[in-house]
Design goal:
Blueprint (H helix, E strand, L loop, with lengths): L7 H7 L7 H22 L2 H12 L3 H29 L1 H19 L5 H11 L5 H10 L7 H9 L4 H39 L4 H9 L6 H5 L5 H32 L3 H14 L4 H11 L1 H20 L3 E7 L2 E7 L3 H29 L4 H30 L4 H27 L15 H4 L4 H4 L4 E2 L7 H31 L1 H7 L9 H22 L3 H4 L1 H10 L2 H10 L7 H10 L1 H15 L4 H29 L13 E2 L5 E2 L3 H4 L2 H14 L2 E2 L6 H4 L6 H31 L11 H12 L1 H7 L1 H24 L3 H37 L5 H23 L2 H16 L3 H23 L6 H4 L19
Parallel strand pairs: 3-6
Antiparallel strand pairs: 1-2, 4-5
Helix pairs in contact: 1-10, 2-7, 2-8, 2-9, 3-9, 3-12, 4-5, 4-6, 4-7, 4-12, 4-17, 5-6, 5-7, 5-9, 7-8, 7-17, 8-14, 8-16, 9-13, 12-13, 12-16, 12-17, 12-18, 13-16, 14-15, 14-16, 15-16, 15-18, 21-28, 21-29, 21-31, 22-23, 22-33, 23-27, 23-28, 23-33, 23-38, 23-39, 25-28, 25-31, ...
């Protein structure tokens, strides 16, 4: 696939025909490398000052890992946007602004005295790490293609800033304290920012664009290459060669102090040898990549790293062999000197690998260096955030010092295997091409020769997809579509399970020693709904950008983060509340998955079968809530994973709970589902959708009306799912409520699938009206049984409301296509009949996605309403009466806008007017 600008003038600029002079090149490279060195010194400041902070605040290894990793998170997540902004606005302005923002946060760090405030300051400090993406996009514009590997390798030597911190910071810290280190480093960064702005010049591409008046590429154009699998493979490589480098640079001082008993100054100097070898040789890696090819350098990097990490990960062990003449004893361990030598060798090859990865980017994506380089840097930087936390968690769990190197050994093994398999596949596809006509790498055939695109197209990409063609559908289309559906369903079920798992976990936290208020517990139950609903808005548009296969794989794999996090966090009653808040927000990954999953599956099926396919995907996905609420109470009372799962927690009643299993139980299933998605699903090459075409729905009043109504149905379903376990536990403390609450979501999910025919027969608006009337009665039932302290009546009333939400989920979505078939002819009379049908279908699909995102906020507001009502009045009654009034407003709105005489759907649903022609069957019954 080629990524060529639409404008010929801009094409000339983007292809690097505006080359700088030698003096301009040296100026840009020298200034950028020096600035990045100072940025990196600030970015890794916690490797030294964090040791003093850890002792001062008494932090655990896991808390220390989070502290040193937090700046890496900001520096990583900001890289994609900073890279794009550099392409758009030029590095001369973006680089100084980034450095000044980081300097301000670094200075403020010196005035913090609590763990929470340090985490917040660390977030801003981390912007210094984003300077890498700025420098890559800026420097690459000054050099021709054949020299970019060497130039970017030299720029990457700025990683030596980590060694600068390790050499100097311990001495400064001893002299004036860790606060003085933060102030000195902040001042240096601010000065460098000013100097860079004064002496740097605009890159040739940006200068030419300003002169010619050509506009920069839009954000969508910049992000276009990110749907390529190749980009994400490069990201995994960089996750190891750079992410592991940052993680070890942060981790090694503490590691050597703890394992070898040396002081912090010596540990900092020895750790600096690793940072030096992993930084200064990056320029040499660029030269080797230019001369021998980046692929050979990557093989050398992964091969040698695998050997070094095996040696480093082997723990000190004593052996006893019962020999003929007595016991023979010996031991294996790595002393300090061979340890330092081994990590030096590891760092050397990692530095070569970093240069090799970035050699690929300007070659393959010359017009998208900022976005592609930013994404690869983002994922690599995330390694620097995630890996220290993993190191700390694995160290706490296993009690083995070398466990951090075991993690890296597994990581580099996966990267090497994936690289080799991908290369073999590309070589096989390129085998029929005259080798003299091939570019440097076989995979570049797709980028540079349109006639050979068919050869280089990945087998998982469906370049021709015609589901409406009966012959194509019967021959191969149906089989492929159903395979993708059957893989999507369990992935979505797991997503719903992880999304709502906090609703069960929080009910058990007080019994194992977590002293949180009722309002704090309801916050934990509510936050996954807030993040999940917000993510749905963005997830609705990602499939056309990244591809359904890649995004399903990534979004499913992302569930491992909260699953592992919950499993580790609940084992220690001293875990800070903020950690639980972050984990609750991360559970929202599961909620967001619905939007992308439904979008992806909708592309595979013909109109006549989309309704059933989407109903299966959504309905069985909803079952994940009840599966979770049924399974979690069973697994937390047994040691499901043995010693690997950790020790049980003692309850206040003297029993034992393995609450960590509420998170760990999903891990093997998520891994299997992720692999199935990657190896079994497909991308559709022409599955594209324009946001601008869909954004017209924001001007449609019925879009907002249906958001209100669907919040009343699906918002209630997901909100009650999140809030009922904790509410029931609070109101009926003597009942083991977790054995029964799964019945509500189960009934709600099944009723949606079983009652869709009611709306088809009587009309969605009429059914929706009576759903809200009956839900008002359900609220009255809950109020009555709460006052009577009747558990079974309380549960029955909630199950009744869950049943009605399922009916309402189907009926509200049944209304949407009929509404738009009536509205489009009035709003767009200039369209012919065929165009009206097509426009109505397009807007209906967009409204379905948007309403599902808005309604998902019920998962936040309903538990939070219960918590706030109890905190304010000691009872949930205020929240319940609020729901009663809300359902009354929904019933009134449905009657006034749609079902009364003169309402939009009154005549259609009573057979007094012809039904809209060609109602899109795919939207009937498809719910969230």
């Amino acid at each position: 696939m080629q990524f060529r600008p639409k404008c010929q003038n801009r094409d000339r600029i983007m292809q690097g025909q505006e080359i700088a002079t030698s003096g301009e090149q040296n100026r840009a490279l020298g200034l950028s490398t020096f600035a990045f060195t100072i940025c990196f010194a600030v970015w890794t400041i916690f490797a030294i000052v964090g040791i003093e902070i850890k002792a001062e605040l008494g932090l655990s290894d896991t808390q220390f890992g989070l502290l040193v990793g937090t700046p890496i998170l900001t520096g990583s997540l900001s890289r994609l946007l900073l890279g794009v902004w550099t392409d758009q606005h030029g590095g001369r302005i973006v680089f100084p602004i980034t450095m000044l923002a980081s300097a301000a946060s670094t200075f403020l760090l010196s005035y913090t005295d609590s763990y929470l405030m340090m985490l917040l300051a660390a977030l801003g400090l981390g912007l210094a790490g984003g300077g890498f993406a700025v420098g890559v996009a800026y420097v690459s514009k000054f050099y021709p293609l054949e020299k970019q590997g060497s130039a970017l390798g030299f720029f990457g030597m700025g990683n030596v800033g980590a060694a600068v911190t390790k050499f100097l910071a311990p001495w400064v810290m001893v002299a004036i304290g860790w606060q003085g280190v933060a102030q000195v480093w902040a001042g240096a960064l601010a000065i460098v920012a000013v100097l860079f702005y004064l002496f740097a010049k605009d890159d040739p591409e940006f200068a030419a664009r300003k002169t010619s008046g050509v506009k920069a590429k839009s954000l969508l154009e910049q992000l276009e290459p990110l749907r390529n699998e190749q980009v994400w493979r490069f990201s995994l490589y960089y996750f190891f060669v750079f992410g592991a480098f940052v993680a070890l640079a942060l981790w090694l001082p503490n590691y050597m102090v703890g394992l070898y008993g040396i002081d912090v100054k010596l540990a900092g100097m020895l750790a600096a040898t690793f940072s030096l070898s992993a930084s200064v040789f990056r320029a040499y890696g660029g030269v080797l990549s230019d001369k021998y090819g980046a692929r050979k350098i990557m093989y050398a990097t992964f091969g040698v790293s695998l050997i070094c990490l095996f040696m480093l990960s082997y723990p000190a062990t004593d052996y006893v062999i019962h020999g003929i003449e007595g016991d023979i004893t010996f031991s294996t361990s790595m002393n300090l000197v061979p340890f330092v030598i081994t990590v030096f060798v590891l760092g050397f090859f990692m530095s070569l690998g970093k240069a090799a990865v970035y050699k690929h980017i300007p070659v393959y994506y010359p017009g998208h260096v900022g976005s592609v380089g930013g994404l690869v840097g983002l994922v690599g930087g995330l390694g620097g955030f995630i890996l220290p936390i993993v190191f700390g968690a694995v160290s706490d769990l296993t009690g083995i010092w070398t466990s951090c190197f075991m993690v890296l050994f597994a990581l580099v093994g996966v990267a090497l295997a994936w690289m080799h398999i991908a290369i073999r596949q590309m070589e096989q596809k390129a085998s029929g091409i005259d080798t003299r006509s091939l570019p440097e790498f076989p995979e570049m055939a797709e980028l540079h020769d349109e006639e050979k695109q068919a050869v280089a197209t990945p087998s998982k990409v469906l370049t021709e997809w015609k589901p409406e063609d009966p012959g194509f559908w019967e021959q191969s289309g149906e089989r492929i579509a159903r395979r993708n559906l059957y893989i999507s369903i369990p992935a979505l079920l797991l997503a719903f399970s992880v999304w709502m798992v906090w609703s069960m976990v929080v009910a058990k936290l007080p019994s194992i020693g977590f002293d949180y208020t009722t309002d704090q517990l309801f916050w934990l139950a509510a936050l996954p709904g807030l993040s999940g609903a917000t993510l749905r808005i963005f997830y609705s548009f990602v499939v056309p950008i990244f591809g359904g296969r890649l995004w399903t794989t990534m979004s499913t794999a992302s569930l491992l983060i909260p699953a592992f996090g919950i499993g580790y966090a609940v084992q220690n009653p001293d875990t800070p509340y903020i950690i639980f808040l972050v984990l609750a927000l991360l559970c929202g990954f599961g909620g967001g998955n619905f939007a992308s999953s439904m979008s992806n599956i909708s592309f595979f099926f013909p109109k006549a079968q989309k309704g059933n396919a989407l109903a299966l995907n959504a309905g069985l996905g909803n079952l994940g809530v009840s599966v979770m609420q049924f399974l979690v109470p069973l697994v937390i009372v047994a040691s499901v994973f043995g010693a690997l799962g950790g020790e049980p927690q003692r309850t206040a009643e003297g029993g034992e709970l393995w609450l960590q299993n509420a998170g760990f139980i999903w891990v093997p299933f998520i891994m299997v589902s992720t692999l199935l998605a990657w190896f079994g699903m497909n991308d559709i090459a022409d599955a594209k959708a324009s946001f601008s075409e869909q954004s017209v729905i924001f001007q449609r009043k019925h879009n907002w009306l249906m958001c209100w109504l669907y919040t009343g149905t699906f918002g209630s379903f997901i909100g009650f799912s999140a809030g009922l376990p904790l509410l029931a536990k609070h109101q009926f403390p003597d009942v083991d409520v977790l054995q029964f609450v799964f019945l509500g979501p189960l009934v709600g999910a099944l009723s949606r699938a079983a009652t869709g025919w009611v709306s088809d027969k009587w009309g969605g608006a009429r059914v929706t009206f009576w759903v809200f009337v009956l839900m008002m009665l359900g609220v009255l039932g809950v109020v009555y049984f709460l006052e009577a302290a009747n558990w079974w009546g309380f549960l029955g009333a909630f199950i009744f409301m869950f049943f009605m939400t399922g009916v309402g989920n189907a009926s509200t979505f049944q209304m949407i296509p009929n509404i738009m078939r009536q509205e489009v002819p009035r709003l767009m009379p200039e369209l012919d009949a065929t165009a009206r049908v097509r426009q109505a279908e397009k807007e209906s699909a967009a409204i379905v996605g948007f309403t599902s995102a808005i309604a998902a906020y019920g998962a936040f507001f309903i538990p939070k309403s219960f918590g706030s009502a109890i905190a304010s009045t000691g009872s949930p009654m205020a929240a319940l009466w609020g729901f009663f009034i809300f359902y009354a407003s929904c019933a009134a709105l449905t009657w006034w806008a749609y079902t009364r005489r003169g309402g939009l759907l009154h005549d259609i649903e009573r057979g007094r007017a012809p039904a809209p022609v060609g109602t899109p069957a795919q939207l009937k019954g498809a719910t969230a």
